[in-house]
């Protein structure tokens, strides 16, 4: 080799090394350890507050309801891997609870203590139950590696919480949730007002789920039916357990959206020919009166619907207009002043090329960073918190904060003028900016993530932690915790 040829080769090698070294370093830095605590993860963000650094802490699994109170509603749910048979006869591989998917409906009255024993029959990766939308005590949230260890085959876990909030909720596994929820490890939970309060004549859940590409309502790949005579009032509790937003529309009667995400709306007007968009994870309660001599069809898609009474079998085409909850109903006090917030957070969603745990890809970012460098939003009990969610990622994200309900203040700078719009699952479309506010009134360590669950598994996740609450669990670890 001539000298100049050799020099050229060396220069080329050196240049390659200069280019590759930082890439190798970035790759290396993206690798997640076998097990780690989310408390050590990410960027602690105090929301403009100087932390109090109170040394006394309580572990998140100590945040329970008192043991000595008797349960009012009890259920045992046994999780298993299995085959789900839809009413068309088609079978899908998935997960069942007590042999079915969706699992049994749990109903409680406001104020009752609900106690659910989760048993794992044979799900090797382990299972948990998260009470989506219920602001349970910190230890009961069911997030594997955050609030408990995943329940191994042959083991069980007891969930106890007081059903303080009236409304429509659901439960689902929060271990490997993008697979287990997809596979049907879920079910509905309804909390009704304590006896004596006015109720609809007919009160029914319609839970939408996509089993292996098949749209279903209450586990049926077609329509479900409920009897309701003309003149009766009907409340239909729509639960969207899918990964995408679901437009719901009603044929045959004007209706009101009585509640969103388990909170009653204030003076909702009667509407018709509009679609109500229920985000992934979200719920919408629709109320109407069955018209004389007719039925009502509540459409979840062109092929899935709830037929009420003597309803038309054919669906209409979905209305082009969508109900805007920012201006629906009338305003009412929200109970605190968001203008006087103690903490202000930014949840910026974007996307960029990089490595996620060593895998190259075009990954979601939170405030410009990839997992594990995502925010740990830190609050103190009693704080009033605002959060600005800005989505520049090119796709919509249904954002879900555990343990709290947040009220929407504005979207794209336009203030909310309708009923207080309390959410736990908020559809944030590409290019949108939402400002929300909540009271930090439920100590714990809470996930705050996209409910298009594959997105969460791809890194669209952050956490909200209370000062003084410590994290005894590990992601990974002996239990193999993988909450996303
Ligand atoms: Cu319904 Cu963290 O989820
Ligand atoms: Cu998403």
Molecular structure report:
The N and C termini lie far apart (55 Å). 8% of the residues lie in helices and 40% in strands. It has helices at 3-30, 177-180, 453-457; strands at residues 43-45, 58-59, 73-85, 91-97, 106-109, 113-120, 130-132, 156-162, 167-172, 186-192, 202-211, 214-217, 223-226, 233-240, 246-251, 256-260, 263-264, 276-278, 283-289, 296-299, 305-308, 343-356, 359-366, 375-379, 384-391, 397-401, 406-411, 414-415, 422-423, 425-428, 433-439, 445-450, 461-466, 469-470. A hairpin with a 2-residue loop joins strand 11 and strand 12. The protein is built from 3 helices and 34 strands. The protein is mainly beta. It is globular, with a radius of gyration of 24 Å. Strands 22, 23, 25, 27, 28, 29 and 31 form a 7-stranded mixed sheet that branches. It has a 6-stranded mixed sheet with strand order 1-24-33-32-26-30. Strands 12-11-14-19-16-17 form a 6-stranded mixed sheet, with no helix packed on it. Bound molecules: CU-O-CU linkage and copper (II) ion. The site of copper (II) ion (CU) has 5 residues, from loops.
């Amino acid at each position: 080799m001539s000298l100049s040829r050799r020099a050229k080769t060396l220069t080329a090698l050196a240049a390659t090394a200069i280019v590759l070294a930082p890439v190798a370093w970035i790759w290396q830095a993206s690798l997640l350890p076998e097990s780690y605590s989310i408390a050590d993860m990410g960027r602690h963000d105090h929301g403009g507050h100087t932390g109090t650094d109170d040394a006394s802490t309580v572990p998140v699994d100590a945040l329970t309801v008192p043991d000595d109170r008797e349960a009012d509603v009890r259920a045992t749910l046994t999780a298993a891997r299995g085959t789900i048979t839809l009413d068309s006869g088609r079978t899908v591989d998935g997960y069942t609870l007590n042999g079915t998917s969706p699992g049994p409906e749990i109903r409680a009255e406001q104020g009752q203590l609900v106690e659910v024993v989760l048993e794992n029959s044979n799900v090797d990766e382990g299972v948990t139950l998260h009470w989506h939308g219920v602001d349970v005590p910190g230890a009961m949230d069911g997030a594997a590696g955050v609030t408990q260890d995943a329940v191994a085959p042959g083991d069980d876990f007891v969930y106890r919480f007081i059903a303080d909030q009236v409304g429509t909720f659901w439960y689902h596994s929060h271990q490997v949730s993008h697979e287990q929820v997809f596979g049907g490890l879920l079910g509905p939970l309804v909390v009704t007002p304590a006896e004596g309060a006015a109720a609809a004549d007919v009160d029914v859940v319609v839970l939408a789920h996509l089993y292996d590409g098949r749209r279903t309502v209450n586990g049926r790949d077609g329509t479900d039916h409920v009897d309701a005579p003309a003149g009766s009032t009907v409340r239909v509790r729509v639960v969207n357990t899918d990964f995408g937003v679901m437009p719901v529309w009603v044929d045959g009667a004007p209706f009101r959206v009585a509640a969103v995400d388990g909170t009653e709306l204030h003076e909702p007007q009667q509407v018709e020919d509009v679609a109500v968009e229920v985000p992934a994870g979200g719920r919408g309660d629709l109320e109407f009166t069955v018209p004389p001599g007719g039925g009502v069809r509540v459409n979840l898609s062109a092929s899935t619907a709830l037929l009420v009474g003597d309803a038309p079998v054919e669906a209409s085409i979905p209305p082009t207009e969508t109900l805007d909850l920012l201006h629906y109903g009338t305003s009412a006090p929200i109970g605190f002043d968001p203008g006087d917030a103690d903490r202000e957070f930014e949840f910026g969603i974007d996307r960029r090329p990089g490595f996620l745990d060593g895998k190259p890809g075009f990954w979601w970012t939170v405030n410009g960073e990839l997992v594990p460098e995502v925010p740990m939003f830190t609050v103190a009990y009693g704080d009033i918190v605002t959060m600005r969610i800005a989505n520049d990622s090119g796709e919509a994200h249904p954002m879900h904060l555990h343990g709290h309900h947040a009220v929407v203040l504005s979207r794209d700078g336009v203030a909310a003028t309708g009923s207080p719009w309390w959410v736990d699952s908020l559809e944030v479309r590409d290019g949108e900016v939402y400002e929300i506010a909540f009271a930090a009134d439920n100590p714990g360590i809470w996930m705050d993530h996209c409910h298009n669950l594959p997105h969460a598994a791809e890194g669209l996740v952050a956490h909200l932690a209370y000062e003084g609450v410590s994290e005894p669990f590990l992601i990974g670890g002996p239990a193999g915790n993988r909450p996303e």
